[in-house]
Specification:
The complex is a heterodimer of chains A (340) and B (228). Chain A is of the alpha/beta class. Chain A has 14 helices and 4 strands. In chain A, strands 1-2-3-4 form a 4-stranded mixed sheet, with helices on one face. In chain A, helix 7 crosses helix 13, helix 10 packs across helix 13 and helix 11 runs antiparallel to helix 12. The longest helix of chain B is centred in the N-terminal third of the chain and has 39 residues. Chain B is mostly helical and 228 residues long. A two-stranded antiparallel ribbon of chain B has the order 1-2. The chains are: A alpha/beta (340), B mainly alpha (228). The interface between A and B is large, with 52 and 59 residues.
């Protein structure tokens, strides 16, 4: 676009009459047959010619851009794989062709463990959720999809194995489910999802290492100290490092409540309660048990999750011994040993 | 008697490699804990959570030292035999299999010494550095992990070094070729078949070796010698 304009200006300026500096030119038309008139006519011809060329030039530019775009799309299509959409439970999974079959199996396994909780519950958010699953290394057409509120993007590196995928799927489903919780409960969760991946062992470490004596009392077995220190039931938000504990507690209550826990939670009415125990009706409804039992059960779980320095060593000893024997046998079977 | 001689030859061949590894095994726990105490404070002012984070930064070094120890012990077990074209071994009134087992046992003894040094290092580090409240030392769990990792690395490298140079070179080239050409092949297949689920050679090796009951899963896990 810039070139024809520059060219036109150049030609036009070349064709324009030289300015007369000695005396100002009078405003009058050039005399027929004079040099100036020829110049003006030439200028008009050039301008007309340029005007006729510019559309052709623009068409050429458009054609080039289209060809480039087509080439880019073709390259992109060659690098990417088509999308598959599958239903798993009440939600959809979209991902590169082939991948969702494996991912779907993990989602179904995860859903089986959660389905009972949602029995009888109205879960419009979960039902409308579309999990966009990235799987392979190639660039995915998922990146071209417009992001919508019901879209949840997930990354399932295939080398992480089925156990990790199942845990990830469960977490994603629980997070989607969080949006179907009553607003009061969502506010208590402080925008955290129910699918919080933080483990009870992490909570145990945080509590054990806190400089606050109440935290260590909590680890030592005082449930009341835990409730106060972690601001478990209501009140001001707990310190940032403990932000994950509320989702973990609610998840424990739902698990304890079993089938229909979510429906009971949604149907619970806030009642008059002691100060600082705003969550009592919700937790009791979800778990179908007194709040003290819910909190105590969860804290027992946390205390039992103490990181074990010996973890895995028992089976490691056995397998390591077997591998050592195998390598030893290979060493004695080497070519060198056949000489003797 | 024969075992003592084999052990002595192995020690002579490997002492200049094994002594630095022994010093590393002994000194690293001390260095790690002293550094952590300096950065995260000690005694009443200690930030215990920072201790864990910093120690987690050090923890990948210990499996590497174990790997180094096992490899050094295994390679030096055969270095003299390879240099002398196995003539000395052939001249012994001993079946080759028994000779290999004697060598293997000798190497295990040599591996055991730095492992004990690691235990001593951890014990000394945890006795001389006051731990923050809430943390405690796990010297024996750490040493057991270190021992298993070192023995495994030793056994694998021993098996590799026991073969001819040609066999060892073949195995190494095979693995490298599998990684390089396999990755290229998988990329091609992923594009042609539009199938993103194909495992790369790296995935295959990772799954086969690192996940239980693969041989190398012991190199993962909790290598903290101080924890809650």
């Amino acid at each position: 676009m810039r070139r024809p304009i520059i060219f036109a200006l150049a030609v036009a300026s070349f064709a324009a009459p030289a300015p007369v500096t000695a005396q100002p030119q009078r405003e009058q038309g050039p005399a027929p047959g004079s040099g100036a008139a020829e110049l003006v006519a030439l200028r008009r011809q050039v301008e007309a010619r340029i005007d006729s060329i510019v559309p052709l030039y623009r068409a050429a530019i458009d054609a080039r851009d289209s060809a480039k775009r087509a080439q880019r799309e073709s390259d992109h299509a060659a690098r990417t794989v088509p999308l598959d959409t599958l239903a798993a439970g009440p939600f959809l999974i979209v991902g590169p062709a082939g991948a969702p079959q494996a991912v779907r199996a993990r989602f179904l396994e995860a859903w089986r463990t959660l389905e009972d909780l949602t029995r009888g519950a109205h879960v419009p958010h979960l039902e409308g959720t579309v999990f966009l699953v990235e799987y392979g290394r190639n660039s995915s057409p998922l990146s071209d999809l417009a992001s919508r509120p019901q879209h949840v993007r997930l990354w399932f590196p295939h080398w992480r194995g089925p156990n990790w995928h199942r845990a990830m799927a469960q977490s994603a489903i629980l997070n989607a489910l969080s949006r179907d919780l009553p607003p009061d409960v969502q506010a208590w969760l402080m925008s955290r999802g129910l699918g919080e991946m933080t483990g009870a062992d992490h909570v145990f470490r945080l509590l054990s290492l806190s400089p606050d004596p109440a935290a260590r009392e909590c680890v030592a077995g005082s449930d009341a100290a835990c409730v106060a220190h972690l601001a478990l039931l209501a009140g001001p938000a707990p310190p940032e490092e403990y932000a994950a504990v509320r989702p973990l507690l609610l998840r424990h209550a739902l698990r304890l409540g079993g089938p229909g826990a979510l429906a009971r939670l949604a149907g619970a009415e806030p009642t008059s309660h002691e100060a600082g125990e705003a969550m009592r009706p919700w937790l009791e409804a979800a778990a179908g048990a007194p709040m003290e039992a819910v909190v105590s059960g969860w804290l027992q779980e946390v205390r039992a999750a103490r990181p074990d320095a010996w973890a895995g060593l028992g089976r490691s000893q056995g397998t390591t011994l077997l591998w050592v024997l195998l390598f030893m046998a290979l060493a004695t079977r080497s070519t060198r040993w056949r000489i003797g | 008697m024969m075992f003592a001689q084999v052990l002595y030859v192995h020690w002579k061949a490997g002492r200049w490699v094994l002594i630095p590894v022994l010093l590393l095994a002994f000194g690293l726990p001390l260095l790690a804990l002293r550094t952590v105490a300096q950065v995260a404070g000690s005694g009443a002012d200690a930030r215990a959570a920072d201790w864990i984070v910093l120690l987690q930064g050090f923890s990948p070094v210990f499996p590497l030292v174990a790997l180094l120890l096992g490899t050094a012990a295994a390679l030096t077990a055969w270095s003299w035999d390879h240099r002398g074209d196995h003539i000395y071994a052939l001249s012994l009134p001993l079946h080759r299999r028994d000779y290999a087992l004697l060598k293997f046992a000798g190497g295990m003894v040599l591996v055991g010494v730095p492992v004990l040094a690691a235990l001593a290092g951890v014990l000394m580090a945890t006795f001389t550095t006051p731990l923050p409240a809430g943390l405690q030392a796990y010297p024996f769990a750490f040493t057991m992990r270190f021992l298993l990792a070192a023995v495994l690395a030793y056994a694998l490298m021993f098996a590799l070094a026991a073969g001819t140079k040609r066999t060892t070179t073949g195995v190494v080239i095979g693995i490298v070729a599998f990684l390089v050409f396999g990755t290229m092949g998988v990329d091609l297949l992923q594009t042609v078949l539009r199938q993103p689920e194909i495992w790369t050679p790296k995935d295959v090796l990772d799954a086969a070796l690192n996940r239980w009951p693969g041989p190398f899963h012991v190199f993962g896990g909790n290598w903290l010698f101080v924890d809650v």
